[in-house]
Specification:
The complex is a heterodimer. By secondary structure, chain A is an all-beta fold. Chain A has one domain: Sandwich (Immunoglobulin-like). In chain A, the strands form two sheets. In chain A, strands 2, 4, 5, 6, 9, 10 and 11 form a seven-stranded mixed β-sheet that branches. Chain A has a four-stranded antiparallel β-sheet with strand order 1-3-8-7, with no helix packed on it. Chain B is mostly beta strands. In chain B, strands 2, 5, 6, 10, 11 and 12 form a six-stranded mixed β-sheet that branches. In chain B, strands 3-9-8-7 form a four-stranded antiparallel β-sheet, with no helix packed on it. Chain B starts with a strand and ends with a strand. The chains are: A mainly beta, B mainly beta. Chains A and B meet through strand 4 and strand 5 of A and strand 5, strand 6, strand 10 and strand 11 of B.
């Protein structure tokens, strides 16, 4: 069983579209995250949720909206996609609100054309 | 805010050569330290981590890292690299009790057979 699973693995879409990326973890972790890896491989935190509540929201355009229906799921919805949104988006989870026991998903490569 | 510097963006080695990748962080207090590896097209995998105790940490695949508090460093080492070690390596830090990871910009290691 995949511990942190993301869908889709690849997403190609046109500018202006709205898209969602889904993430699910079966580890029983309380905290989930979204990280963005840009074309230069730089990884940066976007959002962090603990038990369905947003606890960290870094400087991210408000076109990005995370949604956590329950503590096992953290989805990322992106409105009005722009070329600069092209990146690999990684979901991750950890047992509590500390950095012990991080597990990353396999990533979603988003390409905006 | 903490930051992480990885001094080598690209490293090219021959098989059996020894490896040392530098990582320095800036943060005034105690930190948790991590090295992650990302093989081409894959997700992040944890190589090793340091939270406390023995500053020499052993990880998977023959990697080790040494935490030197006075130098704010956490360098990654491997005595003899293999072609299969070709990957991107990321150093990351997180203050205890704080869940998000701050990553360095990564070092691309290419091992030639």
């Amino acid at each position: 069983d995949t511990a942190v699973s993301q869908t889709p693995k690849y997403l190609v879409t046109q500018m202006g579209n709205d898209k969602s990326i889904k993430c699910e973890q079966n580890l029983g972790h309380d905290t989930m995250y979204w990280y963005k890896q840009d074309s230069k491989k730089f990884l940066k935190i976007m959002f962090s949720y603990n038990n369905k509540e947003l606890i960290i929201n870094e400087t991210v355009p408000n076109r990005f909206s995370p949604k956590s229906p329950d503590k096992a799921h953290l989805n990322l919805h992106i409105n009005s996609l722009e070329l600069g949104d092209s990146a690999v988006y990684f979901c991750a989870s950890s047992p509590t609100s500390n950095s012990y026991g991080y597990t990353f998903g396999s990533g979603t490569r988003l390409t905006v054309v | 805010a903490q930051s992480v510097s990885q001094h080598n963006h690209h490293v090219i080695l021959s098989e059996a050569a020894s490896l040392e990748l530098g990582c320095n962080y800036s943060y005034g207090g105690t930190v948790n330290l991590f090295w992650y590896v990302q093989y081409p097209g894959q997700h992040l995998q944890l190589l090793l981590k340091y939270f406390s105790g023995d500053p020499l940490v052993k990880g998977i695949k023959g990697f080790e890292a040494e935490f030197i508090k006075s130098k704010f460093s956490f360098n990654l080492r491997k005595p003899s690299v293999q072609w299969s070690d070709t990957a991107e390596y990321f150093c990351a830090v997180s203050p205890p009790g704080y869940s998000t990871l701050t990553f360095g910009k990564g070092t691309m290691l290419l091992v030639s057979p």
